Amino acid sequence: MQHEPVVRLEGVTKKVGSRTLVENVTLDIPPGQVFGFLGPNGAGKTTTIRMMVGLTSISQGDINICGYSIKEHFEKAVANVGAIVENPEMYKFLTGYQNLRHFARMMKGIDAKRIEEVVRLVGLGNRIHDKVRTYSLGMRQRLGVAQAILHRPRLLILDEPTNGLDPQGIRELRDYLRHLCRDEGTTVFVSSHLLSEMELMCDSVAIIQNGRLIDVRSLRNGNESKAEAAETGFTVDEPERALAVLEGGSREGNVITLKLARDEIPEINARLVQAGIKVYGIQTVTRSLEDQFLEMTGGDPIG
Amino acid sequence: MGNFLGLVRNENMKIYRRVRTWVMLGILAFCNAILPVLFSMVDSGGQTTLWDSVMLTASFTFYLCTIFSVIVAADSVAGEFSWGTIKLLLIRPWSRSKILLSKYIAVILFSLLCTLLLAAVAMLASSIFFAGGGESSLIGPGESGSAFTFRYLLCDYVNLFMTVAIAFMLSTVFRAGGLSIGLALFIMFAKGIFASLFNPDRYGWAKYLLFSHMDLSGYLKADEGPGGATLGFSLAVLAVYYIVFMAVSWYVFHKRDVAA
Ligand SMILES: Nc1ncnc2c1ncn2[C@@H]1O[C@H](COP(=O)(O)OP(=O)(O)OP(=O)(O)O)[C@@H](O)[C@H]1O
Ligand SMILES: [Mg+2]
């Protein structure tokens, strides 16, 4: 990368008592990317994010945001950050708009126009003038995003932002994050265990497990592994007979699954059809990040 | 960075946009309006003066005033933790000290508002039923009624001020509103018992206890307080305790990790 990283974690360790929650994490987050932070429950994602925004102290190491240490120059460092840490809790007895006014007053140069712009962006519409008490989870999530982007931060940190959003909301969020990234040069750091989401959203991911960073990889390497064998599912009317015809594969309901290379798919289809079996659908299950992730973390129990 | 007054405005907004606050203010105004009426009904010989009525009223309603201020103080920090909004509040370009200060200022402003409301309503209601002049049983001869009443209310406010400081500290330390309210109110009601249990006249060290000095109204009549203390000594003891309470609040708020 030719640019300075926006965030630099240097040997970050968090200890609580004798437990080590995050251990020696070193990570550079380049600017202008949507950067995923992936890990199973209890891996230390939220803990790391809490340290990045100064909510918890750092036991060892340091975190630099836009060149300022969060330890030494908290106010300057955090001025570049907008964040949602875990659930977006708001003042329930205030309206959404009053909540935004509240956070706007805490930062420089946010006028009423900007607030309206943000409300439009997250699609809260007229409900913004209702009390937050009356909001659904997804609406609160949207309001959470709104308060995070209010001051046009250079770094946006979202801890499981799709939690509670409907498919439309997830899609809008994804598009919006892409837009922020591309047009405003915002760096977005999202944590999630919704792995398939990450694949659609992120340019790179860092994978954390048991407090340790185990991998950082780019997801935009073009269309890799075209020839690689992939799980392919055939939906048929007579699964038992299909199994016999194909002499292999596994059955789940009306779906027969086989590991096939791309070229083999039409052949298998032809064989099924010739045997008089009706094929209603063919689906390739690409080896997703999810599988890779499960492979890597070995499906370890939490903790 | 930014405007510190904005922080105080935020805290004010969080106090006055809640229905609860207006209920409290309403109750306070109502009680201060109704007590002089009751006094006027039991006052047989017309001996009660305007200032007597105000002080009598305040001697009841100041408890309410303290309780309401304690509730607001205890919720100020603990509320942010129980709502989870503390996470959004502390990730702004403001040091934790300034955020805590803005909260404390808003709490003190609320306690002042309550006190002013109390004084204003009590005086207004009393002036309808009682005359200003005449011999007063509460006020020494030759003393101005208004000046005495003012000093009386000031003593009450010092009491409230210390109780609120305790509630505010407990709120930052325990992050639990209910516990802080309970403990602070317990101290408010039990301090008389403590003060008589550990009487400075009997135990020399008891004159350094907070309880012995929270109620300064004794100095309105006499120059000597509990254990032969002077007003200056009492104020010094209060000041030391106050600084300790504030230092503890600040330290804990500054240092502690904010975890779910
Ligand atoms: N204050 C604390 N004291 C002790 N242990 C803690 C504390 N906070 C978190 N932990 C532990 O640290 C580990 C990491 O927690 P963290 O919340 O960072 O996980 P996460 O990756 O965000 O998980 P999830 O996907 O479930 O949100 C967990 O095992 C948790 O039990
Ligand atoms: Mg988490």
UniProtKB/TrEMBL annotation, chain A:
Keyword terms, alphabetized: ATP-binding, Nucleotide-binding, Transport
Pfam family for this entry, one: ABC_tran
Record-linked InterPro entries: AAA+_ATPase, ABC_transporter-like_ATP-bd, ABC_transporter-like_CS, P-loop_NTPase
SMART domains on file: AAA
GO molecular function: ATP binding
Domain ABC transporter: start-end pairs: 7-235
Family: Belongs to the ABC transporter superfamily.
Annotated protein name in UniProt: ABC transporter ATP-binding protein YhcH
Biological classification of the source: Bacteria, Bacillati, Bacillota, Bacilli, Bacillales
Gene: yhcH
UniProtKB/TrEMBL annotation, chain B:
Keyword Ligase in record: no
Transmembrane region(s): 21-40, 60-83, 104-130, 150-170, 177-198, 231-253
Keywords: Membrane, Transmembrane, Transmembrane helix
Domain of life of the organism encoding this protein: Bacteria
Family annotation (Pfam families): ABC2_membrane_4
Keyword Nucleus belongs to the record: no
Protein name: ABC transporter permease
Gene that this sequence comes from: yhcI
